[in-house]
Amino acid sequence: MCGIVGIVGNKEVAPFLLSALKRLEYRGYDSAGIAALNNGKIEYCRSKGKISALKDKVAQYPVAGTVGIAHTRWATHGVPSEANAHPQFSDTVALVHNGIIENYEALKAEFSAKGYNFTSETDTEVIVALITFNLKEGLKPKEAVYQSIQRLEGSFAIEVLFDGYPDMIIGARRGSPLAVGYGDDEMFIGSDALALAEFTTKISYLEDGDLVVLHKDKVEFFDEKGNPVQREIVANHASSFTIEKGEFRHFMIKEIFEQPKAIEDTFCSVYDKETGLINSANIPFDLTKVSRVAIIACGTSLHAAMVAKYWIETYAKVPVDIDSSSEFRYRNPVLDKDTLAVFVSQSGETADTLAALRYCKKHGIKTLGMVNVPASTIAREADCILQTMAGPEVSVAATKAFTTQLVLFAALALALAEKRETLPLPEIKKMAKMLLDIPSIMQDFLKETESIDKIAKDIVKDAVNALYIGRGSSYPIALEGALKLKETSYIHAEGYSAGEMKHGPIALVDQGLPIIVVAPFDKYFEKTFSNMQEIVARGGKVIFVSNKKGIAAAIKHITASIAMPDVNTFVAPILYSLPMQILAYYTALAKGTDMDQPRNLAKSVTVE
Ligand code: F6R
Q: Where in the chain is the domain with CATH 3.40.50.10490?
């Protein structure tokens, strides 16, 4: 989850490293650091907190040199502190690391016994100890790194500077991603294409187990056996986007408002205007032969998968299994060769989702990655991809990534329905047209968000707990609403299917508990309505999210309402996601929490 970047250059690297770190801040932001080689000597600066804190510190204590490495941390071992920030270093090396060293305790004990003085609580420092010892044994830097990584269990992407080697960075990876960028008389290395986007459009991805030696005029790759290898140079399509909020106060609200455009771009990428149907040419499998769809994802992406289950089973009549990525490969899933496994991930780097993808590939299952970052590892490793066209999502809380995933899943359900002839063609075209119409309906909805702001301030802000309920495809939307609220405002929130209330959660209902009822006017409405009345009878404060008709029916029971446009059940989950996001945003705003970078979280979860 940490972000790393390095430059072997021909000008002072500190400002460039800091700007690259800013772009990598989505990977972690509890501490950061940079190191550079000044006339062959290591200089460094580290700081607790965000990149802005490091920037201030570097202004005070400059780090000079044209070769340097940098790191932004998401703590795994040891609290966020200056001592635990990277680079970790010894008298001969400075090193940054993304990943987890699983056998670090054994290695720490071994090197402590040999007299190595550990100064941090990190797992990373054992890599420094290993390399330092190997150098003292007389090994050259490349060999010292190679021998050291053979002793490591776990995942890592590392970059290392060596005292006395003024024109060199060595990198290596296993499990965690690493890419090299080619410049003009300068070379770059970083966690992903995004990190390198402002420097170059030419990159190579390291394969698992690779080691790379960077000089400003050449790059040498070695495979896991230590043999020299070539790695293909590809175009870096990651946009060198500027991290600007424009007219908005926060990225989260900016990204909420970007949804009409993101959805339009996403849907148009799979919609065939000529036929009015979905173009599934990107999926090189015979969709008539798919016996089961397995969807594997984490967090918000998992909620999109849960909505997809309703759609695909209802409209295409294909059974769908949903798995949380972290559980999937450990539960010995029964998969047959006609299963289509779909891996949903905004970042395309989520460690558990990636591991699940590799598990399926190993078992000969057809794999489809649904990602927002086309240069990501999942995108590169899946048999084929569907790309959400959300553009870079900076806010840690996923918003536009979610609704664009929903749109792609809705399109996939229609493509399956067409190929399997489970719906008549005119019906499919009608449903595709509903998806086409969403951006303008969303646009209108986004014009009126003050009432949600008021609900956030008057009802939700001071709550300790909140419940979200819904039925059918509104159930995952309730889950997503609860996730958004808890991660951005730190209010404990849970989502339940409305029918589950009586099986336990209703015991929580009292006058201080806001309950957000997601109730489109669909076939579930009457039942959800009854559940809402049961809550009201026990003193719960209901915030009712429905269309005008639904609200009119509920008005005398409820504390507040959010009026939704009249839309077909099929597309309702996409529209009903908006009030969930906006309520979370305004609640966080009212509470003064940092909703763009909430505590303890990171945008890309690259460790298990
Ligand atoms: C919540 C959120 C997370 C991510 C999850 C998966 O707002 O963003 O729950 O959805 O970490 O991330 P990706 O989609 O990148 O695999």
A: 251-445, 450-591
Q: What is the pLDDT of residues 276-321, one digit of tens each?
A: 999 999 899 999 999 999 999 999 999 999 999 999 999 999 999 9
Q: Which one, of 293, 295, 330, lies nearest residue 608 by Cα?
A: 330
Neighbours of 330 (CB within 10 A): 11
For 251-445, CATH number? 3.40.50.10490
118 within 8 A of 124, measured Cβ to Cβ: no
R_g of the chain computed on alpha carbons: 26
Probe residue for ligand 1, chosen from 1, 296, 301 as the CB with the greatest number of ligand atoms within 8 Å? 301
Is 603 among the residues known to form the active site?
A: yes
pTM (2 decimals)? 0.87
Cβ-count burial 132-153 (b if 16+ within 10 Å, e if not): bbbbeeebebbebbbbbbeebe
Give the CB-side neighbour count of residue 458, counting CA atoms within 13 A. 12
Instruction: Specify the CATH superfamily of domain 3-240.
Output: Aminohydrolase, N-terminal nucleophile (Ntn) domain (3.60.20.10)
Looking at ligand 1, which atom is closest to the CA of residue 298?
6
Give me the amino acid identity at 542: V
2 tagged catalytic: yes
